[in-house]
Structures are given as structure tokens and as C-alpha cells.
């Protein structure tokens, strides 16, 4: 979670104090997150998402970690649950199946449109 908070501060230009205020926490609480002594509450994560949107920063699909665009390290068929937002979880297998279907749809649309996508 800390890389995502750092990303927010860097991209928004906010200080530690401004970020803490936006998240409704103290700067010592943020320090504990950075050192992994504690984790942000769901309320703080929700406030981070609101702050990101207000700053024009698109929150990642999986808010548990940073907002990089790396693929999720979940093997197809995994029983792992992914936290996508505010405690909402989905099966990793369902996510992989949806991604495969979306890729197949893009290929089909490219054929129909003659590769204009």
C-alpha cells in the first residue's frame, strides 16, 4: 500500500501532512504504514481513492498495492481471492477468464473492422 501512497504524494505534489489530512490520519500513522508496522484502515484506503480521483490520478484495479500496471501474479485456476475495492473480492480464476474473453472480443472486433482498432 505504501508505494501507492507515495505515488499519490509524488503525482499530486502533496506533503506528508497534506496527505495525512486527506486520509484522515496522523503523520505518525503514515510512518507506521511505511515501515509496515500497521496497515491503513478501509476508511483510509477509501479516502485515498477519493483523493486520487480529485487529483486526477486513476486508482489501480487492486488497491492493495501500488498503482503500477504490472500483471497480477496469479496463475490461471488459482483459488486466490483478489481484493478489488473496499473489501470486495473476486476469484482470480474469474478475473483471468474475463480477461481472456475480453482479448478474444478485441480480436473478433479487429477482424470485423479490418484491423482499425
CATH topology of the largest domain: 434 Repressor (Amino-terminal Domain)
What form results from the Cα inertia axes? elongated
The name of the CATH superfamily of the largest domain reads lambda repressor-like DNA-binding domains
CATH architectural name of the largest domain = Orthogonal Bundle
Number of strands: 2
SS summary, helix count = 5
> How large a portion of the residues is in β-strands, by DSSP E?
5-15%
Q: Helix amount, in percent?
A: 40-55%
**What is the CA–CA distance across the termini?**
35 Å
Please, how many domains?
2
Q: What number is the mean pLDDT? A: 78
The CATH class of the largest domain is Mainly Alpha
Segments where pLDDT lies below 50 for 5+ residues? 63-77
In order across it, which strands form the biggest sheet?
1-2
What would you call the structural class? mainly alpha
Measured on Cα atoms, how large is the radius of gyration? Answer: 18 Å
Major beta sheet summary: 2 strands, antiparallel
Order of helices and strands: HHHHEEH
What does the model show?
The chain is mainly alpha-helical. The chain folds into two domains: 2-54, lambda repressor-like DNA-binding domains (434 Repressor (Amino-terminal Domain)); 81-113. Helix content is 53%, strand content 8%. The chain contains five helices and two strands, in the order ααααββα. The protein has helices at residues 2-12, 16-23, 27-34, 42-54, 92-113; strands at 81-85, 88-91. The chain has a two-stranded antiparallel ribbon. The two termini are 35 Å apart.
Amino acid at each position: 500500500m505504501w508505494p501507492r501512497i507515495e505515488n499519490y504524494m509524488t503525482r499530486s505534489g502533496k506533503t506528508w501532512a497534506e496527505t495525512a489530512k486527506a486520509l484522515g490520519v496522523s503523520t505518525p500513522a503514515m510512518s507506521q504504514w511505511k515501515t509496515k508496522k500497521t496497515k491503513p484502515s478501509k476508511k483510509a484506503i477509501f479516502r485515498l481513492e477519493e483523493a486520487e480521483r480529485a487529483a486526477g490520478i486513476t486508482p489501480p484495479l487492486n488497491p492493495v498495492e501500488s498503482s503500477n500496471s504490472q500483471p497480477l501474479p496469479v496463475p490461471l485456476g488459482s483459488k486466490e481471492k483478489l481484493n478489488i475495492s473496499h473489501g470486495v473480492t473476486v476469484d482470480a480464476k474469474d478475473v483471468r477468464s474475463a480477461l481472456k474473453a475480453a482479448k478474444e472480443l478485441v480480436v473478433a472486433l479487429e477482424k470485423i473492422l479490418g484491423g482499425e482498432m
